[in-house]
């Protein structure tokens, strides 16, 4: 049994930020990081973006987060199976036990699977660096890859691999790629880029059944049509990995419930990142699956593990890059909401405001507009005092 002053379950982006946050206040306290992943923490967004689009983006310089600089001790390739809150220990699948004074749950989420298919060399749920390495082999071999899912990760992977030798079929439940997030004209322009790059689109369709064959994967769609591909990437989103916390008797709703200081209902146990449901200062209770949140909340959790007792008051942004397009956004970006569009150049450069039924701004999309997320946060913070006619011109590219 190894005891740590600070023990982190999960070795992703939160783990890195938290270890650094701890070190801002405590130079020596021992830090342990237990992770299912076989790699030390890395910048996950690179797996679907820069590693495909920027030949100078090296693993060692740009992707590996070098968390070892904090002096944290790693146990990789290990799954934590139980927490004993009374004894302040955790147990791993291989039977080892580790003690803690302060525990951080940073388990992120488990990717949703496709019906009939389990992860394999040809069925990738695309969350980890191992998945990236396998997809790189497939793209280099000019494989036919089916990407399934209508979210930004599926879109980015499609763009990444079609520009690197793969033939890609994108299966998207939305009628238009991007249709669940963007206003109609913008979604059409967005989708056109996929067509221009030779992506075969199967929009408005879901996978009913998948089968892995000797040399590939067969997908049957909900209209009865069939796609035979060398491999499939499932971009179906994640379920927050809350089971460990629930089994330990901690309160779990959409995620592990934490206070504004990121504490669970046990005053030795914190949670942060994709797995945590927290009270956002501007947007209210929510769980966020984005890197800005992982980094800022992770850092704050680390500081609070080391007794800072500070409120997490950062409202996170998110971003995506696809072909030559990119955006940053704050708050809710959903085509179910009403929009006010403010384009400098239609569907090329501009701002989209998302409003609820009471005409209150709930989200801001900055399309090819950079360094304006603080202004977007200000709009959201002042939303109750803003009417739709006051929005155009409020944020200028
Ligand atoms: C391909 C990809 C691209 C992305 N691109 C963007 C982007 O462009 N913009 C953006 O804002 N966000 C993006 N994200 C999301 C962002 O990376 C996540 O929000 C962030 O990584 C969350 O950090 P986390 O530490 O909470 O979870 P993760 O980074 O997922 O880490 C969780 C860790 O916990 C481990 N774990 C889970 N359960 C256990 C257990 N029981 N025992 C031990 N270890 C366990 C996992 O193996 C993993 O190492 C992307 C994600 C992916 C996968």
What is the beta-strand fraction?
Answer: 25-35%
Envelope shape? globular
* Major sheet characteristics: 7 strands, mixed
- Pick out the low-confidence regions: none
Ligands in the model, by name, code or SMILES, are: flavin-adenine dinucleotide
**Annotation, overall tally of beta strands:** 25
For the termini, the CA-CA separation is 56 Å
Helix content: 10-25%
The whole-angstrom Rg is 22 Å
Which structural category do the helix and sheet elements fall into? alpha/beta
Task: Determine the mean pLDDT.
Answer: 97
- Put simply, the count of helices is 9
Catalytic activity: A + NADH + H(+) = AH2 + NAD(+)
Cofactor: FAD
Protein name: NAD(P)/FAD-dependent oxidoreductase
Keywords: Apoptosis, FAD, Flavoprotein, NAD, Oxidoreductase, Transit peptide
Key attributes of the depicted protein:
397 residues; alpha/beta; seven-stranded mixed sheet; five-stranded parallel sheet; 9 helices; 32% strand; binds flavin-adenine dinucleotide
Provide a descriptive summary of the structure in words.
The chain has nine helices and 25 strands. With about 400 residues, the chain is an alpha/beta fold. The strands form six sheets. Strands 1, 2, 3, 4, 5, 6 and 18 form a seven-stranded mixed sheet that branches. A five-stranded parallel sheet has the order 8-15-9-10-11, with helices on one face. Helix 1 runs parallel beside helix 8 (about 290-305). The longest helix is centred in the last third of the chain and has 15 residues, at about 290-305. The N and C termini lie far apart (about 55 Å). The structure holds flavin-adenine dinucleotide. Flavin-adenine dinucleotide binds next to helix 1, helix 8 and strand 21. Flavin-adenine dinucleotide (FAD) binds near residues 11, 15, 37, 106 and 153. Keywords: Apoptosis, FAD, Flavoprotein, NAD, Oxidoreductase, Transit peptide. InterPro entries: AIF_C (IPR029324), FAD-oxidoreductase/Apoptosis (IPR050446), FAD/NAD-bd_sf (IPR036188), FAD/NAD-binding_dom (IPR023753), FAD/NAD-linked_Rdtase_dimer_sf (IPR016156).
């Amino acid at each position: 049994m190894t005891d740590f002053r600070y023990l982190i379950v999960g070795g992703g982006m939160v783990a890195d930020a938290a270890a650094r946050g701890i070190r801002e206040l405590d130079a020596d306290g021992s830090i342990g990081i237990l992770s299912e992943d076989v790699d030390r923490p890395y910048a996950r967004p690179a797996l679907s973006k820069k590693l495909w689009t920027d030949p100078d983006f090296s693993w060692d310089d740009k992707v590996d987060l070098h968390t070892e600089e904090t002096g944290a001790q790693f146990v990789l390739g290990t799954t934590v199976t139980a927490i004993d809150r009374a004894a302040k220990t955790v147990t791993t699948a291989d039977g080892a036990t580790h003690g803690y004074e302060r525990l951080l749950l940073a388990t992120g989420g488990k990717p949703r699977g496709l019906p009939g298919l389990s992860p394999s060399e040809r069925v990738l749920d695309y969350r980890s660096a191992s998945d990236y390495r396998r997809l790189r082999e497939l793209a280099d071999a000019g494989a036919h890859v089916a990407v399934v899912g209508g979210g930004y990760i599926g879109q980015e992977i499609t763009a990444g691999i079609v520009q690197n030798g793969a033939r890609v079929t994108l299966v998207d439940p939305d009628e238009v790629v991007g249709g669940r997030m963007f206003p109609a004209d913008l979604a059409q322009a967005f989708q056109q880029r996929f067509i221009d790059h030779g992506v075969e689109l199967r929009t408005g369709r879901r996978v009913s059944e998948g089968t892995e064959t000797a040399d590939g994967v067969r997908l049957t769609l909900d209209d009865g049509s069939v796609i035979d591909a060398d491999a499939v990437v499932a971009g179906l989103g994640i379920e927050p990995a809350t089971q460990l916390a629930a089994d330990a008797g901690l309160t779990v709703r959409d995620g592990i419930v934490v206070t504004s200081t990121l504490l669970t209902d046990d005053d030795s146990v914190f949670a942060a990142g994709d797995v945590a449901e927290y009270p956002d200062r501007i947007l209210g209770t929510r769980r966020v699956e984005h890197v800005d949140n992982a980094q800022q909340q992770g850092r704050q959790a680390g500081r609070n593990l080391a007794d800072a007792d500070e409120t997490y008051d950062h409202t996170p942004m998110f971003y995506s890059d696809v072909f030559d397009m990119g955006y940053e956004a704050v708050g809710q970006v959903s085509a179910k909401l009403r929009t006010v569009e403010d384009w400098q150049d239609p569907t090329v450069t501009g701002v989209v405001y998302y409003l609820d039924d009471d005409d209150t701004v709930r989200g801001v999309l900055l399309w090819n507009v950079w360094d304006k997320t603080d202004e977007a946060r200000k709009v959201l913070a002042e939303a109750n005092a803003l009417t739709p006619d006051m929005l155009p011109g409020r944020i200028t590219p």
